[in-house]
């Protein structure tokens, strides 16, 4: 995503890119109410694409952040599968 | 995420998991307004974690969906970097 879009994302900035992400999450919500699997897959792709763009603009390594917080076990109870009681 | 959380996600269902995702996107928006890098990384991790949980519940392969729509080039102009004129 950085190679494809960073030149555009960096000009748009954090706020504008965050607003796009919010819009894509809404579109994903709409797609979840339909039975169109291809459209649903495309909306999931769009959300992760915009989340990735936002991470690039915010200078966050999305994959590293995810792996640090969720290192194949629940960060709260430390178990796989999660054994939290709440 | 499937190994850690699917037993919980599948009970919660699509609507409840989507609502959690929306809440996490809001928290990410709040974190973007601060200067706390660790908190920001954690919020990015939470959004991708809940997006992954939602994909599992909706029976969508998130990675495949992303790679199908964004195969290292812009899906609209077909260029890397994106050369769209809009």
Walk me through this protein's architecture.
The structure is a homodimer of 86-residue chains. Chain A has 86 residues and is an all-alpha fold. The first copy, chain A, has helices at 2-32, 37-57, 62-69. The first copy, chain A, is flat, with a radius of gyration of 16 Å. At the A-B interface, helix 1, helix 2 and helix 3 of A face helix 1, helix 2 and helix 3 of B.
Oligomerization state = homodimer
Classify the secondary structure makeup of chain A into a structural class: mainly alpha
Radius of gyration of chain A: 16 Å
* Low-pLDDT windows of residues of chain A: none
Largest interface: A-B, 45 and 45 residues
Strand content of chain A: under 5%
Helical coverage of chain A, percent range: 55-70%
Q: How does the major sheet of chain A shape up?
A: none
Q: How many DSSP-defined strands of chain A? A: 0
* Strand and helix order of chain A: HHH
The average pLDDT of chain A is 95
Q: Name the shape of chain A in a single word.
A: flat
**Cα-to-Cα separation, first versus last residue of chain A:** 37 Å
- Total number of helices of chain A: 3
Q: What would you say about this model in short?
A:
Two copies of one chain form a homodimer. The mean pLDDT of chain A is 95. Chain A is built from three helices and no strands.
Defining traits:
86 residues; mainly alpha
What is the topological layout?
Two copies of one chain form a homodimer.
Chain A: H1 2-32, H2 37-57, H3 62-69
Helix pairs in contact in A: 1-2
